[in-house]
Amino acid sequence: MYDNINSDNAEAARQYDFIEKCRQYIEEESRRLNRPLAAAVVTFGCQMNARDSEKLRGILREIGYREGEEETADLVVYNTCTVRENANTRVYGRLGQLKPRKKKNPHMMIGLCGCMMQEPEVVEKLKKSYSFVDIIFGTHNLYKFAEILFTRLESGKRAIDILEGTDKIVENLPNERKYSFKSGINIMFGCNNFCSYCIVPYVRGRERSRRPDAIIAEIRRLVADGVTEVMLLGQNVNSYGKTLEEPMSFARLLQEIEKIEGLRRIRFMTSHPKDLSDELIEVMGKSEKICRHLHLPVQSGSTAILQKMNRRYTKEQYLLLADKLRRGVPGISLTTDIIVGFPGETEEDFQETLDIVRKVRYDSAFTFIYSKRTGTPAAVMEDQVPEDVIKDRFGRLLEEVQKIAGETCALHEGTVQEALIESVSDQDASMVTGRLSNNLLVHIPGDAGMIGRYVKVKLKECKGFYYIGEAV
Ligand code: 5AD
Ligand code: SF4
Known about the structure:
Elements: H1 9-33, E1 38-43, H2 47-63, E2 66-67, E3 75-80, H3 85-104, E4 109-114, H4 120-129, E5 135-137, H5 145-155, E6 159-161, E7 182-186, E8 188-189, H6 200-204, E9 208-209, H7 212-224, E10 229-233, H8 250-258, E11 265-269, H9 278-286, E12 293-295, H10 303-308, H11 315-328, E13 333-340, H12 347-360, E14 364-369, H13 387-410, E15 416-424, E16 431-436, E17 441-445, E18 454-462, E19 466-471
Parallel strand pairs: 1-2, 1-3, 3-4, 4-5, 5-6, 7-10, 10-11, 12-13, 13-14, 17-19
Antiparallel strand pairs: 8-9, 15-16, 15-18, 16-17, 18-19
Helix pairs in contact: 1-2, 1-5, 8-9, 11-12, 12-13
Bound molecules: 5'-deoxyadenosine (5AD) and iron/sulfur cluster.
Residues 191, 193-195, 198, 200-201, 235-236, 272 line the site of iron/sulfur cluster (SF4).
């Protein structure tokens, strides 16, 4: 039904050949050491990276690696993030810790991939000062992992492979899911928005949507394998389908996914306010499966700052949208991202941010200190805000956000809601943790046998941003 210009099955077949070739190497090495080899993929950053790491683990499993710990694995792969400077700093820190280990175990290999590798300065630095890294690849050629690993194994030399961009989407490669009952699904890659502070469009490339039939086939396969909740992933899911041969709106895609039998919950992220359509609100309002939660990054409450950020909406337009959502999707929980200290942000601008937080009353908000990313327009803007001013604003914002989140959380106290049980609680082994439709967590007495099940839960006590409850 849909023309397939950008998905490449021949490439997948090529990669399976490399998987087989790597497998032979790994088998031999395993015989030599007289033990199985272990690999650890460590994820930094967002859910896109988490999903990419599952793909890397799937390839490693096929090659014959067991899953191991970072501290002891024979192959350690860091899937990096570069959205803020401190993400980069952490990777260099961790690499520094790996160096002495590699000296003692020369057969050990270190791989780096992800968004940081798409920055030429980073790769230069790694080449010069981190010669003990074995494999370096980027976001556009993740599907070539087995090929790049093979190059390293065969040549004995460091393998570096970075593409500047791609229009390719390679389907049907292996994949190792973290949870048996829920899964992320990429519906699109890249971003065309160029918010002036953001490095993502430079490291993830232009927007490309996966074909709807490929998405639906993948979800059907997952459902047959026990998955009941999916998270549709993209930098800007609201503009899904614009680049397809036969364009299709995100709302229509959701309607198609809703029809899949056996699937119970649909989530998605991230939404850009400028592209959120009335059609989507209507579909959400009527849906039985789409969760009552929307992550809608506002970034700032000041129209002047929003303009400098190239967000293409005003404070008033955002407020109108939040209002429409609350009316169209009763009980919806709204969460957001906010940046403090964007260049030129004055105390008045910051007050506008506090004001929008008070008006929208977010269920939770991720708050970030502005981080200067080389190559983005904001990095060279005048009036960079001094650190102490940013810290002070950040503290005040956090206080407000937490106060409101606590109040909105308390509103549901005493109600009965359905939770999908995800894990045994980290704090208390006699409790399990479940997720409500609105994305909040609840801890109830239970055991591992309940994982993956939907349970009606009474929310007995609100603890600020989660609940203590019991099955009813
Ligand atoms: N500095 C601080 N926060 C940033 N984000 C993106 N780029 C930057 C930056 N340069 C935040 C935005 C985005 C989230 C994923 O990360 O709030 O929504
Ligand atoms: Fe970055 Fe803006 Fe694209 Fe989000 S929408 S990834 S903030 S450029």
